[in-house]
Amino acid sequence: MLEIKNLDVYYGGFQALSNIGLEAGNAQIVSILGANGAGKSTLLKTIAGLLKARSGTIHFEEKKIDHLESHDIVNLGLALVPEGRKIFGSLTVLENLLMGSYTARARKRKKENLENVFQLFPRLKERSDQMGTNLSGGEQQMLAIGRALMSQPNLIIFDEISLGLSPLVVKMLYETIKRINQERVTVMLVEQDVKRSLKTANMAYVLQEGKVSLKGNPKNFTEKEVKQAYFGL
């Protein structure tokens, strides 16, 4: 589904990612972990086409995408749920969702995708005429996920999905992620919630100072290994 090889990314003269190698298989849940400044957001922005790598390659469904613009990558079936939700506060819930269906692949199934989102999040259907700014934090996160699903992705990336939300809402969102994955959608989680993320994933990568310090099936990780890879202790 996604294959990254020898990825180097710079901000001016500062190297943010060094020789990153990463894979996400069909219908996998892949967790990307690391402390603040480890390079997680840089990696996501590079995958999504918001940043360009200085070297290395990114293939999505066997297509080379590291040279493509973000809208072209979305049209291939890769969606990002950004940190902070980034919903359009001046638009209604329905208008926000329809913004996710602007690509050629998504327009063909707009009505069907919308119904699927409303089945997944009945609360969004109830509030479809409300403005985005009038939603709670949890509802805004549902809206951000629903908007991404409207693009009909084969791979969906979640950036800090639990940030600022109550434990009850976070639990519900993780259950939703599992349901999305059961529909054969590959999921990539970038999280600070180490325990929950590792418990959910079947493949994990830990980044430290822009490099992969640990990778594999998280069920085989020891607590000591995770701490060492995460903090370098």
Fold and architecture overview:
The chain has ten helices and ten strands. The protein has 233 residues and is an alpha/beta fold. Strand 4 (55-60) and strand 5 form a beta hairpin. Helix 3 runs parallel beside helix 7 (137-149). It is globular and about 50 Å long. The chain starts with a strand and ends with a helix. The model has no long low-confidence stretch (mean pLDDT 91).
Determine the fraction of residues in helical runs and give it as a percent range: 25-40%
Order of helices and strands: EEEHEEHEHHHHHEHEHEEH
Number of strands: 10
> In what range is the share of β-strand residues?
25-35%
Characterize the biggest β-sheet.
Answer: 6 strands, mixed
Morphology: globular
What's the multimeric state?
Answer: single chain
